[in-house]
Design goal:
By secondary structure, the chain is of the alpha/beta class. It has seven helices and seven strands, in the order βαβααβββαβααβα. It is globular.
Length: 206
C-alpha cells in the first residue's frame, strides 16, 4: 500500500487535490482518511469547554490512533474510523468501517507537521493558498457545514487558526515532496500532480 499525505492550511483546497488524485487512481483503489476525523475524544468535557479547545494544534489530534490505523491498513487489515461531530465538538458514538486499498490518502492541516505521521507517508504534498482566500473559504464552510456563526468563525481564526498556521502548518511545507501553489484553484498543477502520483504508484507497485 502507498500512503500519501496532503497538508495545507484550512481552506487551502486539500480536499480538492485529494479528490482529483482519487479520481485519477480510481476511487475504488483509494482509502481516504481525514485528519479531522481523529480529533481527540472530548465527550467527558462540557460543551462550553469543548468550544474553547484549540483545534489547530498538533495535540488536538489522536495521532496515536491514526498512526495505528494506517499501520493496520498497510498490513491489509480493516479499521473502524471514528466520526467527529462538529455540532457537539466531539466524537459521536459511531464508527465507519474502512478496508485496505492500493492507496491511502491522508488529508489534514497538520499531517506534515507531526513527525510520527510524516514518517509513514510514501509521498508528501503541501497545498498552498493565499491567506485571504483561505479565510473566505473557512467562513463559508464553518457557517454552512459546521453550524458556526460569522462572529465565532472570525474569533477562532484570529485567536487560534492564524497563529497555529504560522507556528505549525506553514513551517511543515519544507517536508513536502511537492507544493501545489494557488491551492484548489490551480487545476493545471493539480492535474499534473495527479498524473505524477499515478506514475509513482505504478512504479512502486512494480
Amino acid at each position: 500500500m502507498i500512503i500519501i499525505g496532503i497538508a495545507g492550511g484550512s481552506g487551502a483546497g486539500k480536499t480538492t487535490v485529494a479528490r482529483t488524485i482519487a479520481e485519477k487512481l480510481g476511487e475504488e483503489n483509494v482509502a481516504y482518511l481525514s485528519q479531522d476525523w481523529y480529533y481527540n475524544d472530548r465527550s467527558k468535557m462540557t460543551l462550553e469547554d469543548r468550544e474553547k479547545e484549540n483545534l489547530d494544534h498538533p495535540k488536538a489530534f489522536d495521532t496515536k490512533l491514526l498512526v495505528s490505523h494506517l499501520n493496520l491498513l498497510r498490513k491489509g487489515m480493516p479499521i473502524e474510523v471514528p466520526v467527529y461531530d462538529y455540532s457537539i465538538h466531539s466524537r459521536s458514538n459511531e464508527t465507519v468501517r474502512m478496508v485496505p486499498r492500493t492507496v491511502a490518502i491522508v488529508e489534514g492541516i497538520l499531517v506534515l507537521a507531526i513527525e510520527e505521521l510524516r514518517s509513514i507517508f510514501d509521498f508528501k504534498i503541501f497545498v498552498d493558498a493565499d491567506s485571504d482566500i483561505r479565510l473566505i473559504r473557512r467562513i463559508n464552510r464553518d457557517i454552512k457545514e459546521r453550524g458556526s456563526t460569522y462572529e465565532k468563525t472570525i474569533d477562532r481564526y484570529l485567536t487560534t487558526v492564524k497563529p497555529m498556521h504560522e507556528a505549525f502548518i506553514e513551517p511543515s511545507k519544507k517536508y513536502a515532496d511537492i507544493i501545489v501553489p494557488r491551492g484548489g484553484q490551480n487545476n493545471q498543477a493539480i492535474n499534473l500532480l495527479a498524473d505524477m502520483v499515478e506514475h509513482f504508484v505504478e512504479h512502486h507497485a512494480e
